[in-house]
Each structure stands twice: as C-alpha cells, then as structure tokens.
C-alpha cells in the first residue's frame, strides 16, 4: 500500500511539474533560481554612434547593462525544470532499472536494454557533441542540395534525417555489438542469453543516469556552483559499474554456464565488449568532449 501511495504521489508531482513548465512563460535567459546579478556588463550598441570629434574616427557608445533580477514566474519555471529534468527523471530512471534487476528478464526487456539503453541512449546523448554527427549532417546536406531544389524547409529535413540516421546507426552498431556479444557468449556456455543479459543492467543504469544528469550539471553550473568534484565522481561511478558488470558476467558464465574451460574463456572474452563500449562512451562524453557548453 505504501509503495502504491509513493508511486502515485511521484506521478502527481511529475505531472504538476510538467504542467508548470508548459503553462509558465519561458524564464529570462539570464534569470537564475538561487542567485541574482547575472548578465551585468558593459556593451556597445552597433546602431548608436557618438558624434565624431573633428579629425577623429567615429566612436561607438559604451552602455552599462544592469544585472538581471529574476521574477517570481522565472524562479517557478526554473524550479519546475530543475526538479523534473535535473532530479526526478534521473532518479526515477535509475529506480526503475534497479527494480527490474530483481526479476528475470523477458525477451522484450533484454532487447530494450541491448538496443535501447546501450544503443539508442548513448547515441542520443552523443549527437550534440560527437564530431562524427557534424560530418554526417554535412555529407547528407551536400547530397540533398545537389539532388533536390533548395527550399526553406530543406534544412529542417536535413537536420531531422541526419538525427534519425544517427540514432538508428547508433542503435544498430553499439546495441547490435552488445546483443551479438551476449548471444554468442551465452551460446558458448549453453546459457539462456536473457540470464546473461541481466548483468547488463548496471551498465544501462550508469549510462542512463550519467546522461540524464548532464542537464543537472548544467543547471548547477548556471547557478554558480563549483563542479571541480564532478569529473572524479563520474570516473569513480564508471569504474565501479564497469568492474561490477565484468564481475557479474564472468560469475554467471562460470557458475551458471556449462561447457569446457575453453568455451568459458572465449565467452568471458566476448563479455568484455559491453563494458568496453560503455567505458569508451563515458570517456568520450565526460572527459574528451568537454567544453564551455558541456559539463
């Protein structure tokens, strides 16, 4: 009963936050939830020139910009966004995966983990950062411009098509590699592949949690929080989860699987593929492609 009440309360809270975010006007770009004084600076208005002094070139006028003071609706909209996207969504996603780990996986769930959480999700988190997506978009745009009449909507189609190809390709490459590695490893030791896929849950959890909390980190940095500790925490989580997934897979192969020692050795090598893909994704996302727009 208590679990039902808690689930219903969370659903109501999520619905309320979504409604607030949809109904309230978008907050001012320089408004902050917990602090004021952002956006104060001096700027030059290119449309306003001071009267030039004889013998001197025209001078631009320097104006002082007052700091932004957030209004109540700005703070309420930011609070709804922070709570839903920055806190509740990552926590609920992690809780759902942890709850799923207590039960045997059905085939749809195992496929969802392989192709969805370990294929589609990494591709989605990467598309704004991966230089390969820019190359794909440029190549697609060049081909379309050469073969189609250039219209105002053509570039929207280019962006949409490039994103769909990227997500589909990521699902097939990363998710397909994970699926094939698990199926082959399970077959070598005469094991139900869904039992071995159960050990993928920690990898799916850390991929989803770290990806969803990227917005959380951006919100915290926007409020002026010091995030020097964040890379260390991410590295520790990735190391812990990749290590635990390796141990769970090897233990399942050794204790539940059957067959000769050579078959178990090859299956153990195949099991290296999913943790390696997650580790590479984490390194690229959080340590290689970092910039001023990505924490």
Helix run count: 10
Number of strands: 2
> Quick one: biggest sheet?
2 strands, antiparallel
Order of helices and strands: HEEHHHHHHHHH
What is the spatial order of strands in the main beta sheet?
Answer: 1-2
Note poorly predicted spans.
none
Tertiary shape:
globular
How far apart lie the N and C ends? Answer: 40 Å
Pairing-aware structural class of the strands and helices? mainly alpha
What is the overall pLDDT average? 80
Strand content bin: 5-15%
Rounded to the nearest angstrom, the radius of gyration is 25 Å
Please estimate the helix content: 55-70%
Provide a concise account of the structure shown.
With 295 residues, the chain is mainly α. Helix content is 68%, strand content 6%. Helix 8 runs antiparallel to helix 10.
């Amino acid at each position: 009963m208590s679990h039902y009440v808690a689930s219903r309360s969370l659903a109501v809270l999520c619905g309320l936050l979504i409604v607030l975010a949809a109904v309230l006007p978008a907050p001012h770009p320089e408004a902050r939830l917990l602090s004021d004084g952002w956006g104060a600076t001096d700027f030059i208005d290119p449309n306003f020139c001071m009267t030039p002094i004889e013998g001197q070139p025209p001078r631009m006028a320097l104006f002082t910009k007052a700091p932004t003071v957030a209004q109540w609706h700005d703070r309420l909209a930011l609070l709804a966004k922070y709570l839903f996207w920055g806190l509740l969504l990552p926590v609920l996603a992690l809780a759902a995966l942890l709850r799923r780990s207590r039960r045997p996986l059905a085939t749809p769930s195992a496929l969802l983990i392989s192709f969805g959480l370990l294929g589609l999700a990494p591709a989605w988190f990467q598309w704004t950062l991966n230089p390969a997506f820019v190359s794909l978009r440029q190549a697609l745009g060049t081909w379309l411009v050469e073969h189609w009449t250039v219209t105002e909507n053509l570039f929207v189609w280019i962006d949409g098509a490039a994103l769909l190809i990227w997500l589909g390709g990521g699902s097939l490459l990363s998710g397909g590699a994970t699926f094939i590695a698990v199926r082959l490893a399970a077959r070598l030791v005469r094991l139900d592949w869904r039992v071995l896929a159960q050990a993928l849950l920690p990898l799916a959890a850390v991929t989803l949690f770290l990806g969803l909390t990227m917005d959380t980190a951006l919100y915290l940095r926007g409020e002026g929080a010091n995030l020097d500790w964040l890379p260390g925490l991410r590295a520790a989580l990735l190391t812990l989860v990749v290590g635990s997934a390796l141990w769970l897979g090897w233990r399942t192969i050794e204790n539940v699987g059957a067959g000769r020692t050579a078959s178990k050795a090859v299956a153990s090598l195949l099991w290296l593929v999913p943790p390696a893909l997650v580790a590479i994704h984490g390194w690229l996302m959080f340590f290689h492609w970092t910039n001023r727009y990505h924490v």
